[in-house]
Amino acid sequence: MTNVRDSVIDFLRQTGMTVMFGNPGSTELPLYRDWPEDFRYVLGLQESAVLSIADGYAQGTGKAAIVNLHSAAGLGHAMGSLVTAYKNQTPLIVTAGQQARSLLLAEPFLGAVDATEMPKPYVKWACEPARAEDVPKVLARAYAIAMTAPRGPVFVSLPVDDWEAPCELVSPLAIHGAPEPGPGAIKEAARKIAASKKPVMVAGPEIDRCGGWAAAVAFAEKLACPVWASPMSPRCSFPESHAQFAGFLRADETSVAEALSDHDLAIVIGGPAFTYHFEQPMAGGFDKDILQITNDPNTASYTQRGTAIIGDVAAAMEKLTEMSEARAAFPGTARPAAEPPSESELTSVLAVSILQEMRPANALIAEEAPSARGDVQNRLRIDKPESFFATASGGLGFAGSAAVGLALAKPDRRVIALLGDGSSLYTIQALWSAAQECAPVTYVILSNGGYEALKGIARRWQTPSVGTDLPDLDFIALAKGFGMPACRAQSAADLREALDKTFALPGPSLVDVVVSDG
């Protein structure tokens, strides 16, 4: 007779989820009895790091990943990373152990009270099976929901005494892509575009997630319009060296309005353009027509005006390209390369410039250096799909651990984790996982001695910055303590030498870049 554990393992194998990410506790142990040889367990030393490693892996493979956490407190540790995975639209099946069903009435030690309520609203669905024999069917439904556009994490609470119960085998539902916009919607969008004299395009992260780079370039070239990146985008969705790439929208109303107001139609594709970080209203607001195309009804719901179309964005762009008249050649030119910075002292600007100069051609960037984001946007040029990953939530702790998952998903590409010293500490335990997995990750930490981005906001708001200094950090000792080679760069020559060596290594290493602009 098949039991729950055998059925679950069979289901995971059918879906290709044979890599499990976790940090187990006592309520999860029965799952691992007779652990199959074709499965791989990736251990993280803290649940927040575990979940972000899985997030990176799922984004890198484009498929759902499974995460196994400990009951209640373990899930609690992972909540910050779960918020980011939800905003990243990452398909994850997050499971957590639960105490035995017979003990739950008395709120047992290591039990979860209202287990399914804890991760909401940052999961698409949450369930604790009503019966042990329902566990495989619940996981099958969770998988279907996670993989349905807009994708995202789901949560399943698994009582510890369910694994030996008899049950049936289950098979995954075949899920093929996101629904295409209907012909009436595409016809309305094409009409708006044809009537527009001066359109502008905003490219959001869904384009990169759905493999829509080529469609975005073809569509933009047909319209001969400038293309902006959506504010705080966690992915790059348009080649930044392209003559039509205009730059990065800032996350406040005035900046967005000023960038787009010279146009009569804003075509926003695959992400929000009118959701902000800072309150900076513009008198009268943004009053131009908007055409929003997204696979996310939530994003569509707060489009300010105009028309919102829900469906697969790559398919929509392909159809609109066919239906649109080619316009005169784009009148602009590619953004000029930034002026080479002085090398008299090692600054963040110089460090990013050297990284652009030396990074391998097929490298991808996992970025979480908030105070240097402007330097990254001005000096790094992302010109290939699936080459830039950042947090969509703004919460720290994503990139340093996601880099490990990305490297496991794409072992033929060097991963560069570009981090601030403050943000790196949120999931610093990921260094150990990178070392244990021999993941091809180069950690580049811009050490400016504090939370420099927060200091900048404090200056802008004319308020004191309290608790923003980080003295006496030793990233060399931390990296070596986790089993990873490391070195420190204090000059341009040091950094070039360090990157030259680390890019040649098969596994991970860390470069502590001491910058002067802290």
TrEMBL record:
UniProt KW keywords: Thiamine pyrophosphate
Record's protein name: Benzoylformate decarboxylase
GO biological process terms, semicolon-separated: carboxylic acid metabolic process
Record-annotated membrane-spanning stretches: none
Domain of life the protein comes from: Bacteria
The keyword Nucleotide-binding belongs to this UniProt entry's keyword annotation: no
Thiamine pyrophosphate enzyme N-terminal TPP-binding domain ranges (all copies): 3-109
GO molecular function, one term: flavin adenine dinucleotide binding
Domain Thiamine pyrophosphate enzyme TPP-binding: from-to ranges: 378-513
